[in-house]
Design goal:
Number of domains: 1
Order of helices and strands: HEEEEEHEEHEEEEEEEEEEE
Strand order of the largest sheet: 1-2-3-4-5-8-9-10-11-12-13-14-15-16-17-18
Shape: globular
Number of strands: 18
CATH topology: Porin
Largest sheet: 16 strands, antiparallel, barrel
Number of helices: 3
CATH architecture: Beta Barrel
Strand content: over 45%
Distance between the termini: 20 Å
Length: about 425
């Protein structure tokens, strides 16, 4: 389900200094990764007309093709003192509009019997992500409604970008962190009878701090990130009871102790934090069921949200997911649903249009349901499909390009996933 990683900072420092460890020739890197491709079409996409916003899907096409490519370079060596040193560099060649964003993850691990210390960037470096329990209702690599990898729904979007609370993928997800791919230092405990925990510290959310020969990143960090000095803590319990019964339950939180606006002004209040919990149960006969949830405090200052309707301060939100899946031989089928609700217009309306019914406080809602399936053609090669429904209900009285009205659509997708 997830791997409990191992080491402590003290172990690494003392072991490397006193153990006279050697790794002749350095670490040899191996190659792995995946290629995912998919096609999706939308049926419906109904919403009220907005100024320059168009009808239907906000001047967006009713279908499209998507692809995702990952190339991982990974290697490890065990030193004479028993410490295992490993490194991973993951690239998304087509995964970002700018070249610096195509470095998806890059970190080094120093692991031993007392745990694992990791230093680097990417979502795997967050202790909260290591203990996050996704709902089991998605059996595909491409699709699903809990932070889908290949997302075709236009819920939460307009003709010129993200509007309202956020896109469907961000607002309807239960494993969203505050730090993005910010460079962090993390500790992961070994397993204590199935119980593991992790702790992470990130100075600046979403800051990778690449420097040296790459020619940028000189000096220290700007004070212009919403989430700074972020502490993450997570724990879970993972156990196989035998006879096909398994249990994974976990939770955690993240807290930004400081933060700044883009202009450098301090966030004296309304600093973001988040809390999550979830479980999965494996049942004899190929069944898995579970649920997960997350609560967002001051989500308007969470860098993952494009919260144009959050208001001036103090808006919170939450999302909850539930799902079940069944696998028999090469066929897997999953059913999942998710619902999110977010406070808007807190302490004053800041968007375009009018306050709903003259009341500057309300809630946006976003939800979806997915029936998905996968067929294993061979080791690491799957065909995948999904039928999904998504709905976005912003609490706004007058439709504009900044605040589109209610949107919903049926989504039909097909694709494949190849691991190498």
């Amino acid at each position: 389900m997830k791997k409990a990683l191992c080491a402590t900072t003290a172990l690494v420092a003392a072991g490397l200094a006193a153990g006279q460890a050697s790794a002749d020739g350095g670490i040899k890197l191996g190659l792995s990764g995946y290629y995912r491709g998919s096609a999706g079409i939308l049926i419906g996409g109904d919403q009220v007309a907005t100024t320059n916003g168009g009808q239907g899907d906000f001047q967006r096409t009713s279908g499209g093709f998507r692809q995702e490519v990952r190339i991982n370079f990974k290697g490890e060596t065990t030193l004479d003192n028993g410490i295992t040193v490993s490194v991973l560099v993951g690239l998304n060649p087509n995964g970002a509009a700018n070249t610096s964003g195509r470095l998806n993850r890059a970190y080094a691990d120093f692991s031993g019997k007392y745990g694992d210390v990791r230093f680097g960037q990417g979502s795997p470096t967050d202790a909260i992500s290591q203990t996050c329990v996704y709902d089991p209702g998605n059996v595909t690599a491409n699709f699903g409604v809990n932070s889908a990898n290949q997302d075709f729904t236009n819920a939460g979007l307009s003709n010129n970008g993200t509007k309202g609370v956020a896109t469907f993928e961000t607002a309807d997800a239960t494993c969203v962190n505050l730090t993005g791919k910010g460079t962090s230092v993390d500790y992961f405990s070994p397993s204590f009878g199935g119980f593991t925990f992790g702790v992470s510290y990130t100075p600046e959310g979403s800051v990778t701090n690449s420097s040296g020969s790459q020619g940028f990143g000189a000096g220290t960090d700007f004070k212009n990130k919403k989430a700074e000095n972020v502490l993450g803590v997570g724990a879970d319990y993972n156990h196989d009871f035998g006879g096909g019964w398994t249990l994974l339950v976990g939770g955690g939180g993240q807290w930004a102790f400081t933060g700044h606006t883009s202009a450098g002004a301090s966030l004296t209040k309304d600093k973001p934090s988040t809390y999550l919990v979830g479980f999965q149960v494996g049942i004899p006969g190929g069944w898995t069921v579970g649920a997960s949830g997350q609560y967002f405090v001051n989500y308007g200052n969470n860098p993952n949200f494009a919260a144009t309707d959050a208001g001036s301060a103090g808006a919170d939100g939450w999302a909850a997911a539930i799902g079940a899946s069944y696998t028999i031989d090469a066929v897997s089928i999953g059913l999942e649903g998710i619902y999110g609700r977010y406070q808007v217009f807190q302490n004053g309306f800041t968007g375009s249009g009018a306050c709903p019914s003259g009341n500057c406080a309300g809630h946006d809602a976003i939800w979806g349901v997915s029936l998905n399936g996968a067929y294993a053609l061979g080791p690491g090669i799957n065909l995948e499909a999904q039928v999904a429904y998504s709905k976005y209900s912003p609490d706004v009285g007058t439709a504009t390009t900044s605040n589109p009205m209610s949107y919903d659509a049926v989504e039909i997708d097909g694709g494949f996933a190849i691991n190498f």
